[in-house]
Structures are given as C-alpha cells and as structure tokens.
# Entry
Amino acid sequence: RQQVGTLQSQVVQPQTLKRYHQAVHAFLDFLTAHQMSYPTSACEYIEELRENGDPKGWAGDLLSGLGHLIPSCKGHLAGGWRLHSAWTRACYP
# Structure
C-alpha cells in the first residue's frame, strides 16, 4: 500500500492533475483580470477560449479540474459542460 500511495493520488494521473491545475489557475487569472466572480463566469471564460482560438481541451480541463479540485462545485458546472458539448458539435474534422 505504501508503494502505491493514497487512494486520492490514484484518482487522476499526475500529468492530468498538472493540466487541471494549469487550467484552473488560468481561469482564476481571468476572473481577477475581469473583476468577475465564480461560478457564473465559467461559461464566459469558455466562450472567450473559443473566441481566442484556444484548444477545446482547455475548457474540458477547466471543468474537470474544477470538479476534481472543488468537488462541491460539480453540480454547478452544467452550463459549462453544455458549452463544451456545443463546441464539440460546432467543430468539424
């Protein structure tokens, strides 16, 4: 058990956790720069990511990161996930 680590450390891979931290940090910088409050601004941030031509994966990392790092907000991210899905449908291969 000591070699494997804690159960919490097994939930996501270290590189995934790093992406989650980066995405949430960028979101918090966005909130600070625009003097906005969480959580209503998550949708606005995702819209801005798309408008800037940023990868859709950044939005997914943000939403997954918020859900992982702040479990109590999981039920409040439905709007963000809807935008993520719409972005997926709007992108053609």
